[in-house]
Please model this.
Amino acid sequence: MWPLGRRRAALIAAVERSPTPQAWAALLRAGGLAPRFVERLVADMRPAARAVPRSPGAGKGAARSVTSRLGGLPDVGPGFQWPTWEGEPLTFVGQLRLRELPASVRADLSLPADGLLSFFYAAEEQPWGNEDADAGGARVFFWPVEGLARARRPAELSRHAMVKPHGLRLVETRTIPDPWSWWAVVHDVGRRTLATWMDAVAPWKGARRGPRHQVGGHVPRGQPGFMELDCALTAVGLDREHLDLRTRRARAAIDDVVHWTLLLHVDSDPRRGMVWGDAGGLYFWMRRADLASLAVGRAWCVLETT
Model:
């Protein structure tokens, strides 16, 4: 890993401040990546939204309005029934008001101009999302904004299993593929380039502070592993341990990996009652076609630890 000198610290600050193609390219080249490979990474940049927790006391009205936030109780439509898994109510993680997302992110994810996405997870059991048995351990709902009402807490859901309510500010950013993403497999990145790539982005990852929630885009990974692969396999009842590429179902699942995209990443934030595994994160994934048709019941959640 290259040392974090003044120049490289300045390059990291430039990416955090304004993640333009030029800023990313300068940081990656400083890390030793070949210019041609840097061009490939920058060409596949995607828009995303950083979901920044609002400071205490900011936007107090958001707690009573239909807006983007984490924790508390959800705003839901008629006929809502609180989701359960293995007989226990799921924890409400948060909700996204689509009109508050940057237009570039809505377009990239094929989301409508407005509406509400609600996210739930089995916070006490914490399923990993890497096997078919975890189905139902996380749920996503979509609601039109008309006629929404604040849900009541189920008696079976203990207060300590709830996330402390806090508003979110959705800030547009630009993201590049991660070395531990399926992009590296599709583009057949060699071992030397992969090692250099990891070293090039490691100081940037290490310099990031606080919870880093994110909507859409490429997402930085905390450890080796292909979450989109787990999504594609579990969607057809397979897992890595029993993967036989000689079967048609397994080959179809591998081909399906590229169609999965991140919808929401929720980071650990102990101060607000969110600790996922060993201070890791929740990653809600969907196929692009399912997102375009708002078939959010097909979303899949993976828990990744640090």
The first strand starts at residue 46 and ends at 53.
